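Figure caption, in words: inputs first, then the predicted bound structure.
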Amino acid sequence: APDPAPTRGILGRLLGRDETPEIARRVLDDEMLEQLEELLIAADMGVDTALRVTANMAEGRLGKKLSVHEIKTLMSDEIARIMEPVAKPLPLYKKTPQVVLVVGVNGSGKTTTIGKLASQFRAAGKSVVIAAGDTFRAAAVEQLQVWGERAGVPVLTAPQGSDPASLAYDAMVKAEADGADLLLIDTAGRLQNRGDLMEELAKIVRVIRKKDPDAPHNTLLVLDATTGQNAIGQVKVFQEISDVSGLVMTKLDGTAKGGVLVALADKFGLPIHAIGVGEQIDDLQAFDPQEFADALTG
Ligand code: GDP
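Bound structure (guanosine-5'-diphosphate present):
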């Protein structure tokens, strides 16, 4: 049954019923640190990263009495410190068309993210072309066409089941002919057969390099925050089968488990280019480490 009480975050869980964070005080001892670790692990941060955060919090402060507000701030600052180096918007290059390959498992939010990105770049005055490279999923192609219409961006498609690499090549030709700034290429996300997917991605890369040896300029891995620690495994797999250059984390609106983002930053150090916070076209935001850390610990 759903919990009728509002979700209590980390801060809330440290407080008794009638306590306020500025007044309630706690000793930062081993027991307290263990409790904090458990709260971080429950937020899907993973054991290693949770331990690092609490160890850093304790440094020079073990046994000190602090207000709950101070403890929360310490924790949130530690998390923000881990996240700061990875908060980087997608770099834009002078050379065009800039080719962005978008990878990720089905359902992670690739299609939606491509639509949102296209819209943002359009709003910034860039011209964009989308290639519907998951040629096996008719629904994905249709979805992309809808997003393309919303964003005012042409979407290149190919008949169902046709070769995504040849579509990607055609899209390169069109993007170049149109003088487009960006080409966003959707890809299949069937991990059931890793070997096939690897071959498919490798072929796309091989073929677009015939037009531009530097392409793709970015390989964006889209991850679903609600899958928690599974995201770690997905980064590992996609690093094996493609040249992941940055991440977009979707569905951060629907989860108290965004902690996996901290674990990802800690483990892989890949740039987080944007976060998805809803299903609408404007629900893609730059990643703000302090805001994220405050929300996670609040
Ligand atoms: P794909 O299979 O990787 O292309 O995934 P889709 O783009 O089709 O997204 C799968 C589902 O997740 C859809 O219902 C989307 O509306 C939803 N979705 C994508 N991004 C977000 C997000 O940031 N927040 C929320 N709440 N839903 C999202």
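Confidence is low (pLDDT under 50) at residues 1-7.
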